[in-house]
Amino acid sequence: MTTQDLSATQPAAPGIQPNVDLLRFTTAGSVDDGKSTLIARLLVDSKAIFQDQLEAVERASRSRGDDTVDLALLLDGLRAEREQKITIDVAYRYFATPRRKFIIADTPGHIQYTRNMVTGASTAELAIILIDARKGVLTQSRRHGFLATLLQIPHLVVAVNKMDLVDYDQAVYRQIVADYREFAARLSVQDIVFIPISALRGDNVVDKSRHMLWYDGPTLLHHLENVNVGASRNLVDFRFPVQLVVRPNQDFRGFAGQVASGRIAPGEDIVVLPSGLRSTVKSIVTAAGEQNEAVIGDSVVLTLADEIDISRGDMIVRTRNLPQKSNQLDATLCWMSETPLNPQGTYWLQHTSRQVKTFIAELNYKIDVDTMHRHPAATLELNEIGRVQLTTTQPLFYDRYQLNRATGSFILIDPYTNTTVAAGMIRGQSRQISDLVEQETTPDLAAARKKSTDVVWQSGGIAREQHEQQNGHKAAVLWFTGLSGSGKSTVARQVEQRLFARGCRTIFLDGDNLRHGLNGDLGFSDADRQENIRRVAEVARLGFEHGNIVLASFISPFQRDRDFGRSLLPAGRFFEIFVKCDLEVAKRRDPKGLYAKALRGEIQNFTGISSPYEEPQSPELVVETDLQSTEEIVAKILAQLTEAGIIPAA
Fold first, then answer.
1. Same-domain check for residues 373 and 255
2. Does 351 lie in the same domain as 312?
3. What is the pLDDT, as a whole number, of residue 594?
4. Which of 101, 142, 465, 581 fits 96 for a cystine, CB–CB 3.0-4.6 Å?
5. pLDDT tens figures, 195-228
6. How many C-beta neighbours within 10 Å does residue 503 have?
7. Claim to verify: residue 371 and residue 279 sit in the same structural domain
8. Residues annotated as catalytic (active site), given as ranges
9. Which residues pair with 506 in a beta bridge?
10. Distance from C-alpha of 232 to C-alpha of 18, rounded to nearest angstrom
11. Does 5 map to a domain?
């Protein structure tokens, strides 16, 4: 399941293209405020309903004993909705006038269906908030106004409905307008319009009301036809998440997807993320043939001038217009599952076409959508909204939701049930962490090394090259990284035994051993983990300079720390060996009982449970201990060292 503006589950309108003059809008309000009736009135009066549909609604109304035709039956499709006379699910309807096409999301008003309102409103450019003129501004009216601004919907229409039931009293309307303006002053509302209507009678919906001559504003349909479309669409930042590699034959290789934002044309320079490879757009292909341009919402196939490796989940952007990059995210979550948020749990995060594992680094607070107050929270329940800090196992390429709804939104998926449990909006990089990966270019990690003042590096009496000549092999660092229980140390020990049998000089560095002494003062926070690996890398370098093959076996969960170790050595002498193993297999192995303790909450910041592991992006070698035998893996590593010229052939 993918998400762009959280719209993965929303149907596409037949024949309606996103780049045509199209308005997506949503309706919201308290229960029985007349949302479905209003939409039905729009459909009926704009001649978007067939006669047989109207006749069916008339028959259904008569069978229930209603005195008038219940237009809401046109939209309330579920049996439970019709029986209760409420909206439960999100209903999508399409209609058009000579001026514009429309997609409507009719969302439920009950508090227990907040998640449905979020889903329906996620792609909307305008929200109609209905208020019953008899009841005035209720909690639900405020709640939906808050959610609309949270979702960055640029236009709000407050439709004061059922004016016929208050004798079209202007004083009632004015009081509601004053009350809602007072509330809206606390929101970040770009544009708000008030319209008095009667959805049942049709007053000020499509035609001007003869009962409210005191109102000199537009009708609802007139406003919908003339409101500025595209205000929330990002037409500047080109973002193209790759969905599929298309290769029907050896002469064609293209990359299919939907333009999430911005526009692109043949001849423009692009960069592919995360690889950083650059090329130029050669052509834009659709079912109708090649196009001169692709804009936001277009589903196209891009071909490039160069043969470069691209796969699903990559993102194509302009070279001089890059998104942000981080694995530490500050986000707002709307919880959509009956199973509460597990603050210690692991979830899949689906962002555009890219899926990565994520951890809840911190739950800051939940938001009372009635008062907009923030409250401490241990978890999030169904329909609750909160602010969280997320840590992903691989960096995401994103824009803030405020700037780009397509690349600023995501969903969370339960890894065990594969159900969507939350929808999220990215506020920016985690406020807790300043990450090196935020920089566009890779920093000089070696230049950032710590050193005491007033010290000078002393070379040994014997150069590394002399050690290597005497040893009969070159020096190297083999860096084994992987989850706890993946088999890193087992593999590293057997590699060392085989190297020793060949007469090679080796040093074995193990995480537990170094924490018994050299690193015994460090804990397992992110900062302490970084310092732990920094010290290990420095020790490995000392062993390397003495001509040894250093075997370092450490979880080393963060890519930047492993990159630091690489930066200390000459090119071709650092071998990052990813000892890959499925997390569930590692849990079952659990040789030290650590996973069991972590799952019981006895160990904090445990990699794979409550702290992330960033899989290597470009390791020299990937071995899979849950699929290959140790003997096969050892032979593969030795063959790699032989091929690289580190050790002579056996």
1. no
2. no
3. 84
4. 101
5. 999 988 889 998 899 999 999 999 999 999 998 8
6. 11
7. no
8. 556
9. 549
10. 13
11. no
